[in-house]
Amino acid sequence: MLRCNASAYGALAYINYSPDPLNNFSFRPEIYEDAEGQRTGTKATYYEFSLGWQHWLSPQVVIRPEISYWYSDGAPAFNGGTKNDTFMFAMDAIIHF
Fold it and tell me: pTM, whole model, 2 decimals?
């Protein structure tokens, strides 16, 4: 019988500020420990900090741009395993119908 006991632990928080009903700004710190590398492919503790903006263009359409900084403590996990940190810009749109 084959067995695998790989544990992973994480903690995440959202700190939000809404200056008006159409805008919401978010700060998201996260820590994630993948001690065996089963979830991410690299044994490391990951730290992430993101800044995001949610903006309602209409009652049906929301855009959400975000910039994140990621750091892997323990092994290089980014850029094909050559870097310990990376920046990421992402954006999505949500259409309510």
Answer: 0.84
